[in-house]
Design goal:
This protein is mostly helical. It has a domain at 24-72. It has 4 helices and no strands. Helix 2 (7-37) runs antiparallel to helix 3 and helix 2 (7-37) runs parallel beside helix 4. The longest helix is centred in the N-terminal third of the chain and has 31 residues, at 7-37. The N and C termini lie far apart (56 Å).
Length: 72
């Protein structure tokens, strides 16, 4: 209970939470846009339901296209 009562911890938590939101929102938006554009329904649903702080979105945007190109 002392954690939330200490103003230093509370301020740090707000800063970290804000930074995580500012980092993940653009990645999520770009991944959702690309998934919708390519009619990839399941990726779109995963991006809506799962929050990975941008990691899954970055994988989808940069790594997955390279894997698809190599398999062709």
């Amino acid at each position: 209970m002392d954690f939330w009562c200490n103003p230093n911890y509370r301020d740090n938590f707000i800063i970290v939470l804000t930074a995580m939101a500012l980092w993940s929102i653009p990645w999520k938006a770009l991944a959702l846009w690309k998934a919708a554009r390519h009619s990839e329904k399941w990726w779109f649903i995963v991006f809506i339901l799962v929050n990975t702080i941008g990691l899954l979105e970055i994988f989808y945007l940069f790594v997955l296209p390279r894997i698809k190109l190599k398999s062709r």
